[in-house]
Structure formats: structure tokens, C-alpha cells
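Whiteboard transcription, Tuesday session. T.W. wrote the C-alpha cells on the left side:
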């Protein structure tokens, strides 16, 4: 899979091509279908980034002098 920037560039290229009046209808439809797939994949990536940013911005603050909780690894019965 191509990275975000490559897919965005391809989407822009498809948009430019679709606007050309000499483009046959079948080719325009294929470009539109590819564009829809690309737009959806880009939207998913943006949602993931947005979620990560929200976690970073709103996540719990960990103080540097707070010792780590290790009880999760003690097997504790």
C-alpha cells in the first residue's frame, strides 16, 4: 500500500483527469471508483491520526517521579 501522501497525490491526479471533457465515460467511471476507494482509505488514516492525537492530548499525565505499577506482572494469586 502506498503512503498517505502518494495516495493523496493519486486522488488529486484522478480528480484532474475526470474534469477533462475528452475522457471517455468508462475511463471516467473507473477513475471515479478508484478515487472513492482512495478517499475512503485516506479518511480512515485521518481518523486513526485524530484518535492518536486525542489520546496524546487528553491521556493521563504520568509524573516523572511516580514509580511504575508492576502488579500486572506479578501473577498475583
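and on the right, the sequence the group agreed on:
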Amino acid at each position: 500500500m502506498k503512503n498517505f501522501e502518494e495516495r493523496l497525490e493519486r486522488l488529486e491526479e484522478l480528480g484532474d483527469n475526470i474534469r477533462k471533457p475528452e475522457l471517455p465515460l468508462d475511463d471516467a467511471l473507473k477513475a471515479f471508483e478508484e478515487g472513492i476507494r482512495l478517499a475512503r482509505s485516506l479518511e480512515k488514516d485521518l481518523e486513526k491520526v485524530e484518535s492518536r492525537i486525542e489520546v496524546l492530548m487528553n491521556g493521563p499525565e504520568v509524573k516523572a517521579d511516580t514509580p511504575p505499577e508492576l502488579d500486572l506482572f506479578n501473577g498475583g494469586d
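Someone added at the bottom: The chain has one domain: 1-58.
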